[in-house]
Amino acid sequence: MSEQQAAKAGGGRIDRRRYRETVGLAVRFALQLWWEAKTGRLRPKAKREARQRALYTAQARRFRDFATTKGGLIIKLGQFLSVRIDVLPKEYIDELGQLQDAIPAVPTPIMTDLVQRELGRPLEQLYAEFDPEPLAAASLGQVHRAKLASGEDVAVKILRPGIDALIDTDVRSLRSIMRLLDRFTTVGRYMDVEEFCQDFENTFRDELDYIKEGRNAETFQRNFLTHMGVEMPQIYWSHTTSRVLTMEFMGGCKINDIEQLDAWGVDKSAVAENLLAIYLQMFLRDGFFHADPHPGNVFVRPDGIIQLIDFGMVGTLPDDLRRGLTDLIVALLKKDPGGIINVLQRMGFLTPGADTAALRRALMPLVDLMIGQWGTLFQGASYLDLAMQGTVMEQFHVDKELLDDIREVILTQPISLPGNITFLGKALITVVVDCFKLDPKMDIMAVARPYVLGSGGLAGAGSGGSGGGGIGEVLSLLWQDGWGLVKALPATANHLVSLAQKLDDGDLEVRLTEGQLRRLELSARAQTRKLVRAIGGATGFLGALMVWLHRRQR
Q1: Pick from 374, 414, 367, 378: nearest CA to 511
Q2: Which residues carry out catalysis?
Q3: pLDDT band at 114, cuts 50/70/90?
Q4: Containing structural domain, residue 497
């Protein structure tokens, strides 16, 4: 039985003190929440809610401090949970979003000794130069810059000694905590606890195998072999084992280092379009994506070429999920709440028995505003940015009322993120946030269009996502838009008739915030205009189609 199998069977090497401290903290939090729920009924609503918010904030800060001190998978767990916007309250999301995977470095002599043992030779025979000062130190490993005897500049990634016992302990702790939550709380309504634990464990155990990470890097190299706007580091297998990874050194600056990019004269708009196009290819075509694209893993060369590193955390997307993502983008493009809900149901985002009519009413006032405020939404101190990206940008203006309404929809409506989608969502939002930092006026839908239509080549740097489509793309788009107008006519009419009947019967029950109610009125006016446009557009489209068919028959 392997170490991983032993750990899963309960026989792994466990740090019992660490286990007790971790589970003990969770039990303490659970008791605090239970006591607050019992005693809160005796307080006025406003005071009860204020105490709850204060307790959430205090617990989240305590966990953040605990994770930073302990390292290991506890930091990863906090970052993982920080994107579960369907489970955790705002106060937890805000605090956990600030967790940084950076802890004190292991002394260099310990790390170099590990390298020598793994590679079987003295350090001076392995590397002509080896910088004792680490470039980065994270919870699982640390990186040193070095030079091979043949002259290549390399980065040497070394797994922390003793990390296996920490991982076994933290996985055991997680499973114990989640089973307690599943038994004594309602968390099981919003997520599959076993799936969550398994997805978390599989993802982060893969990060402990540098052989697998090297192979992942080479897979990305093959997938982007003809793309001139991105590069991945070469792996030096002669200097690599499962615990030591030697790869080409990437000399660019972090993608969020705007000052350096400006000093180099880099076209930031082109970089933003290129970055989004790269990830759209991963998400919608390859089905194999880099799941941790934070700025420390995405660099830009002085010539604007994007460099990706750290391939320990990757994700795979089956065909049905990729089709669902494409359909979701199409529904957003058409500003179609009903279409969005249908896709969410098919992808497993809505829990069984969900009131889709209520969710549609809640989405109607938001979809138009979300599409119209992409730049503001993703560059401001927004809820999505804070939850998924962990970066607060208070210097940007943002419509706080809109973001509060989005949060209200997410937390009050039956939306649940499947475990296999969490890393995809985190990666996507991280990329979009970085794109809008580079170009606040970027048209993300223009870049996405060729991928949604399934035509055209990869949009390179500065392409605007329009390359390769040609007449076929135009005809495809005209057909989709025209058919969409035809389909929109009965759907819109049915919604209006149903709404009128419910109003007349007194059966309409809507639970919306005040902001949503105000926007609902504006949206109703927009729906009326859309109905008129749908009738006119459908008539014109059908007329043009008939003329075209008549000419073909002549």
Answers
A1: 414
A2: 292
A3: very high
A4: 471-553
